[in-house]
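Our example pasted here:


***
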Amino acid sequence: MFTHYTFLRNLAFVLFGGLLLVSCKKMVSIKAPVSSLTTEKIFANNQQANEAVSGIYLSLISGTKRISTNLGWDVFSAGLTTLAAGMSAGEFYPYSTASIGDEYYLSTNALTFNNTQAPTNIWSSAYKSIYIANSVVEGIEAAASNNFSDSARKVLMGEAKFLRAFCYFYLTNFFGDVPLSLSTDFNATALLPRAPQQQVYEQILQDLLAAEQLLLETYAVSGNRRTRANKWAAKAFLARVYLYLKNYEQAAAKATEVINNTSLFQLEPLPENVFKTTSREAIWQLRQAEGSNSGLFYGDVPEADEFIPNPPNTSSPWVYISDELRNAFEPGDLRYSKWTDSTTGILPGMPVPEKAHRYPAKYTRNPGRLPASVPTQYLMVFRLAEQYLIRAEAIANGAPGGEPEALKDLKKIRDRANIDDLPAGVNVLDAIAKERQTELFAEWGARWFDLKRTGKAAAVLSAVTMKNPWLGDYQLLYPIPQIELDKTPFLLQNPGYTQQ
């Protein structure tokens, strides 16, 4: 295991290291394209090409630093999306009452163009991974080695395009229009303007549809762990994208394909098993470094390190569950008892009501924090429960099936949570929104994006006490990082964020 991750780190930080360091200076304008020498060496055979693609995954779960003390604030895909969007959505709030800092500005929806680092880190980490994905796409296309088989080319190309689409999905949902960089060529990317969100989504769909055709149906590439994208991950991602685009028939169809594959996917009967490495519900997970090479987090999922106090039940939490989220859970809901936890710890001189001691706990800390421990959880990205919720919402919005079928999908989720059936005459779309809130809380900004895509964000969030006075609907997009605006005249700031 040590050898495997050492090699991955060498690949990501040595072969791609110079390229990524340039990207710190200019996220879209990256000067060092893949050279013919680099392409020849990295894509000389199936194994080396496979490790090149593994470098994209490594950048998503570990960033592009050799070690980070705070991945949750460094990397959009290693906790930052969940943290930042969760605070913006009012899922949880910072434990500290200080009226300054990233957590405060996100929780109160009081961002300015320069008062928090979160938008910059989301932007920079996503574009770094996009750059690696672009270099892999170009490397596969240019590789001429007879030892690099056609079958491997197809699968690895599918993964690279899937991961590029993944990064752009989060960029456009945070920022709206974003530069659409599909090349490592400095001349092609140096002065890219922001592409309309519709064009970004068109590229996401193009990449995902290609990935769906190219990827394997099994998890053989990752040794049957669900930690590399396959055809089913592409279908699940397509279902989500189609839902966001209000293409309800296609959203329901793709979700159904995944749901019907019962040989691979089943809802875990117990909530406490959903996020384990062995979860049958998992469609795609990100695998963190393990064992003696696992860095500062002892094999933990980065989000565990961000959310779980240490020790878990006696230290003060970093964030606590909001009243709005607490009140969304029905009596007896196992998701509340199993996916949140409480602590008696409080900071000296900071009396906080008992409710503020409840924090998200879908992940757990490594018992004993032993460097040699093997993880019991991976970071969940796509899971089956979301596919049921996607299909239910698509059907409720007119996809074939009718309201009774949508309610059947909701019942699957509610039965596992051990809560009563919905009453007759319930508003199905409202019920779905509530179920998404309690099922997908603290997962990849789902609540934040749901409120925005359904047009409910301003009304819901402006009524939250901590977010008053509501400064304006412009807060529903994050500001473009000022450091990026300073580099090119073709990037324009999102409306509402004026320099002060």
The longest helix spans residues 150-175.
